[in-house]
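**User:** Once you have settled down, spend some time on the protein underneath, comparing sequence with structure tokens, and judge whether sequence predicts the tokens.
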Amino acid sequence: MSLINKMLQDLDARGSQGAAGAQDAVRPVPGRERAAAPRMVMIGALAVLVGAGGAALGWRVLHKPAPPVPPRAAAPAVVVVAAASPPAPAAATPPLPVAVAAEPVAAAAAPAAPEPAAPAIEAVKAQGATAGERIQTDESLKSVRRVKAAQTAKPAPARADAEATRATINAAPVALQGKESNVQQRAENEYRRALAALQEGRVNECIAGLEQALAIDPRHQAARETLIRLLLEGKRPNDAVRHLQLGLALDPAQPAMAMMLARLQLESGGPAVETLMRTLPFAGGDGDYRAFLAAVLQRGQRHKEAAEQYELALRGAPQNGVWWMGLGISLQAEQRLVEAKDAFARAKGSASLSPELQAFVERKLQQLPH
């Protein structure tokens, strides 16, 4: 409004200065025209004022920098594409603003974009091409996954068959265990009937029952031991040897049965040493077994091995006079006379020998050099 007042004052000043000189030249106008003249001046002044204000506002709008647009969190895909795009040359194009990378459509539509916007548009196009290639790659990966899924789904019947086979295999031990239990029970029933017959004095029927039990279950140890004892009492050593050999063939870890078989083989000239050596790993620290093996080795003139077995047996029973005597015999045969004399002396001092063996040891001590 101050601008309008100033313009009115200027008009009044000009009017007062020219009124004196031009009064004669001014002719009176009608009253209607005099009333319209100030109104037209006011309208013209307002038009000029509005035009000047619009021009000033337009100038400010055109020259005011555009406020930075904050990047929107909802456009991660566009940001990833911008990161994957190659950087624009530094000499030709300034760094691409984040607003252009995040909002390529808004930047392209802005009417007052600066002149270097063309390289930015080219960068966005390149980014779009990279995004298109990535989409094609993603589609290819999806196709490959679908093919793999289809291939994986096809062998389902084969897996079902494999699971059924495994279930059958897992069930087989249970069935075998039940069958084995049934076999053991049948053999046990025959064994008990054979013992009942033995208590009634029917030995032959008992032997037949024990043989039937072993036919059902060859590993029925009690039935085999009882049968061997009855065969030996019945003077049937050959049948006893056969059953002993069958038992050791099924389970060699039976030192007592191996010693029994070795005794029978010694009487018949059989391979007693081989029988005992076969079961030796299962004898452990059994001194009786090692002493018996030493005696069998000594009988076969294998004195060095016999002395070793006697020494092992005496570690667990150092007061056994018979074993000291056996060790002295093998040491004397090996011409280890000093050690043999010491062994005989230990045998004599054990006070566990019979009168006959005591006399034998004393004679050996007298024969050895002092």
Notes: Confidence is low (pLDDT under 50) at residues 18-36, 73-137, 153-158. The chain is about 75% helix and 0% strand. Residues 232-283 form one domain.
